[in-house]
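Researcher: Here's the sequence for the chain we discussed earlier.
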Amino acid sequence: MSDNQLYKIAILGSEEVVKGFKILGLQVLTPSDEGGAEKLLLELKSKNDCAVLIITEDWAGRLDGFLKEEFAKVSLPALVVVPGLGGPSGQGLLQLRRVVEQAVGSDILFNNN
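Model: Thanks. This is the structure I predict for it:
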């Protein structure tokens, strides 16, 4: 990819939550099941033109193992977990905790609590 290539931002979640982001120019992904979500995310990853992938907490929880396996070792896209319709579930905070712990080697945010 050339240095002046524009990167995209994508959001994955239920249609009710993410459909409004389309008018902002985000690539909206609304899978019907985990298999469909995995397929969409692998296609997104293979294109290598997405800088940020926003995932609602409900989907991040459902795809936790897949996300760890496929996206933990890549620099792009950066994964951002946001609350869904049901409000915050703690999945986003857990993801942040894992990223910080991996980066610095210990749990400095929560003091291992």
